[in-house]
Write a structure and sequence with these properties.
Structural class: alpha+beta
Number of domains: 1
Radius of gyration: 12 Å
Strand content: 25-35%
Length: about 60
């Protein structure tokens, strides 16, 4: 089985905006921040935390 990874599907210059789980059909994530201006580090953390939570639940037995 394919190892789940996060794949960025939409960028705003060098800032990741949208991502998917490469092992799950339909698992999409949209970055969010606390200000009206996108921040690369904040958006990366947002996407990673959204990916990590279901990863623990859905793919825990696959590792």
């Amino acid at each position: 089985m394919k190892k789940p990874t996060i794949g960025v599907t939409k960028w705003l210059n060098d800032i990741p905006i949208d991502a998917v789980c490469t092992a799950c059909a339909g698992a999409t994530f949209r970055a969010s921040g606390t200000s009206h201006r996108p921040n690369r580090e904040e958006y990366q953390k947002s996407l990673q935390s959204q990916f990590d939570e279901p990863l623990k639940l859905v793919h825990a037995d696959e590792s």
